[in-house]
Specification:
Helix content: 40-55%
Largest sheet: 8 strands, mixed
Strand content: 5-15%
């Protein structure tokens, strides 16, 4: 049986999407190395590092993230078109992956982005890998859009959260989609809720610049990461949670219209969208999910033939 060209479709999910690292590592360990990768948002980052042969570097970087280190990458810029410019994170990724062009990668790769204004889906398959990754995870309102080829581009999850279509277009004959879930299932039903005014809560009136360093860290942490004293979510968390809801709805529709040949579903209970400091846990759960997927293939009679055909 001829070997099929295996493609991976990797979606977003903020910190949860770091599980893609574990999924890819498990596939490699089993001898299933995808030759084609299409990624959106953080899925594009994981896929891009894999396509460049630098997945281990990304694993080490993610594993070393702490809340304090995360704040170092949040270059706040309230005067611009987003809360953060994203330059610090971009430079850090570039230091790990190097200055490489997508067309020079040893594996076929494409990052999905969305054009600001038109909403057009854009597949970045040539040019700077770092710039493509930066555009694919440019979450509206959080990271500044990226100008490429005369277009302002932002997060690809707005149009194609799990890019199965792109993976097929890049030449994949067998597409494996990796979907990330929080482990919670909510039925799409409507139910009445009584509106009740909340009591007034005290807010912090002291400007961050007037606070001691330790207190300033606490204030920024609460504002940016959503850990406020009054229990209300911070701005980035509100934006990210709203974006995640939209992304999940779009993903269901896109996957129903163009289903993958196989799906690895990773359920990440206890890991929030901003829990980048739990990267090792997310990676481990992604690895376990891929192993369950491979085990299911081996138990299925047709799966044995399929797996043999997919091996490099």
């Amino acid at each position: 049986m001829a070997k099929a060209l295996v493609g991976l479709a990797l979606g977003g999910g903020a910190a949860r999407a770091l599980a893609h690292i574990g999924v890819i590592e498990a596939l490699i360990e089993a001898g299933l190395e995808p030759q084609i990768v299409a990624g959106t948002s953080i899925g594009a980052v994981a896929g891009g590092f894999y396509a460049a042969g630098r997945l281990a570097e990304l694993h080490d970087f993610a594993r070393g993230l702490t809340l304090r280190q995360l704040l170092r990458y949040l270059d706040v810029n309230l005067a611009g078109s987003s809360l953060m410019t994203g330059k610090r994170l971009e430079k850090t990724l570039a230091s790990h992956i190097g200055d490489i062009q997508i067309e020079d990668l040893p594996r076929k790769f494409g990052a999905v982005a969305t054009e600001l204004g038109t909403g057009q889906e854009v597949w970045l398959t040539k040019g700077s890998l770092v710039a493509a990754l930066r555009a694919s995870y440019a979450l509206p309102g959080i990271f500044k859009p990226v100008r490429i080829g005369g277009r302002w581009l932002m997060d690809g999850a707005l149009v194609n959260p799990v890019p199965v279509t792109a993976a097929r277009a890049f030449g994949a004959q067998f597409v494996i989609a990796v979907t990330i879930h929080s482990g919670q299932y909510v039925r799409n039903t409507l139910f009445p809720v009584e509106a009740e005014a909340a009591p007034d809560l005290k807010t912090e009136r002291t400007a961050p610049g007037d606070q001691p360093k330790k207190k300033r860290f606490g204030l920024v942490n609460r504002q940016l990461l959503g850990q406020r004293r009054d229990g209300a979510p911070g701005i980035p968390r509100v934006v990210l949670e709203a974006f995640n809801i939209t992304q999940n709805r779009i993903a269901r529709s896109r996957l129903a219209g163009d289903p993958p040949d196989a799906t690895i579903q990773v359920n990440l209970e206890g890991i929030g969208l901003f829990d980048f400091h739990k990267a090792e846990q997310a990676i481990a759960q992604g690895h376990a999910a891929a192993q369950r997927f491979l085990s299911t293939m081996r138990r299925d009679g047709s799966g044995l033939q399929t797996e043999a055909a997919l091996r490099r």
